[in-house]
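Run: sequence + uridine-5'-diphosphate -> complex structure.
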Amino acid sequence: MAIKKKEEKEKTEKKKSPKSEEKLEYVNKQGKRLDGRTVEETRPIKITVGVVPSADGSCYLEWGQNKVIAAVYGPRECLPKHTASPYKAVVRYTYRMATFSVPDRKNPRPGRRDVEISKVSAEAFEKAIFTEKFPNTAIDIFVEVLDSNAGTRIAALTTASVALADAGIPMRDLVAGVAVGRADGHIIVDLNKYEEDAPDAVDMPIAILPNSEEIVLLQMDGLFSKKEWQQARQLAFAAIKNVHALQKQALLKKYENSESAEKPEKTEKTNGSDVQ
Ligand code: UDP
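>> structure
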């Protein structure tokens, strides 16, 4: 009886299969992507400042499914001493993905990808931080990706940038970024993993100093035509403006909250007890 039922189920699944094999549109006729976003829309971003009390500055960010935490220490003594510079602070950036942050267990040992992302991100921050003000010191930035769905290097940079500001490290500007790319011929902002794996995919993480629009990080996986590049650049810069606004908003929120905590409202004394 059970075998018959199984056979019937298989038959109905076979009938259904041509429909389920229908080509999924990365961007449909209404201009919507598979997750309902438009081509210029990023996933929802939520930023919380000051989440690691022992650090000089810290930040937690959720960018769609991506969850990232960053902690900053410094400027502090640069050890080992031979790595210090008498002219500027050394920026050290450590990007790591937690073993549980991806569907297939990630080797906890830092791989080539972690080393590469750490290197290019440190170079991006060297352009933002007034390193010349702190010779013989190190500024340590640690970023841990807790959950991921593409775009983590940009999510990490965005988080680290807010953590640096929270640590009071003088910078020319916050570093803000987004990944922009192509899926099925469409230029789209903030690709998710599914879009990043499209057959014709191009993925271009880009980070800038938003006020001067100086590019501090640009990587490209795949190739754009000149026209596509111009379109991608335009979409990316518009999206980054929004990311930058959210970073500033999160920082303001923390300091507005801490100011109001420092200044308690006037209290009246009634019958020996404080009444607000
Ligand atoms: N990823 C993974 N295992 C790894 C590295 C990456 O599953 O060891 C996933 C992860 O979700 C990541 C995505 O692949 O966000 C894209 O990785 P990529 O190297 O393009 O960097 P990202 O887009 O995160 O900056």
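>> summary
Residues 102, 106, 113, 148-153, 193, 196, 203, 205 surround uridine-5'-diphosphate (CB under 6 Å). The longest helix spans residues 226-262.
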